[in-house]
Design goal:
Elements: H1 9-20, H2 26-33, H3 37-56, H4 65-99
Length: 106
């Protein structure tokens, strides 16, 4: 069994809007675009659900889960960088004290 073709988002949107506008039936859209009726139906459901969620939030959408994940990673890396910077400064100060002239010798 072969893998179904990957349909670009723009094409999915055009297909779903055509079905919603009544320009073609779900079966016609599937046949013309060489995809299954189930795929077109799923795209339509996803499209409507996303629109419903957008309206429920007043049109303001927060960061996506991917954006939240990336922000958490940035925060973690920023903290690690800060810790490494402090550690480097301590090592430099320590090295200066060991390599510099002794304070007991005058």
């Amino acid at each position: 069994m072969s893998r179904p073709p990957v349909v670009p988002v723009e094409d999915k949107q055009r297909i779903v809007l055509s079905v919603l506008a009544g320009e073609m039936t779900l079966a016609e859209a599937a046949r013309r675009n060489k995809v299954s009726e189930q795929s077109v139906s799923r795209w339509k459901s996803q499209f409507l659900e996303a629109g419903r969620a957008g309206l429920a939030e007043g049109g303001k959408s927060g960061p996506s889960s991917r954006e939240q994940q990336l922000q958490a990673e940035v925060d973690e890396l920023t903290t690690a960088l800060g810790e490494a910077h402090v550690q480097l400064r301590v090592w430099k100060k320590s090295a200066e004290g060991q390599l510099g002239p002794s304070r007991t010798l005058r």
